[in-house]
Design goal:
Number of strands: 3
Helix content: 55-70%
Strand order of the largest sheet: 1-3-2
CATH topology: Arc Repressor Mutant, subunit A
Number of domains: 1
Number of helices: 6
Structural class: mainly alpha
CATH class: Mainly Alpha
Strand content: 5-15%
CATH superfamily: Winged helix-like DNA-binding domain superfamily/Winged helix DNA-binding domain
Shape: globular
Distance between the termini: 27 Å
């Protein structure tokens, strides 16, 4: 959830409401609230009044499902950058847009 936004915000702390996150993810706001409570209890994020702060990015990424890396690869491909996964797959491939 939050690591993907952090990748696009390029910061450890950013403003985003639970309502907007729910809209982006296609889930109910209560689902975002429940996830935020769990992630805060694990000390991975701090969420207060529309501001998320990533406290432990490495552990947060480890907690995320495998779709996070797939989404990150797609996002970076759209920007014309190579990811670790793409670099490992081909030594000389270059992606440009």
């Amino acid at each position: 959830m939050a690591t993907d936004d952090q990748d696009r915000a390029h910061a450890d702390s950013f403003d985003v409401t639970q309502e907007f996150l729910a809209f982006m993810l296609g889930v109910r706001r209560s689902g975002v609230t429940n996830a935020a409570v769990i992630l805060q209890s694990r000390k991975l994020i701090r969420y207060k009044r529309g501001n998320i702060t990533i406290l432990n990015r490495k552990r947060l990424e480890a907690t995320a499902c495998a779709c996070y890396q797939s989404d990150l690869d797609t996002y970076k491909h759209g920007l014309g950058t190579r990811t670790k996964t793409q670099v490992a797959g081909s030594d000389s491939a270059k992606i440009t847009h």
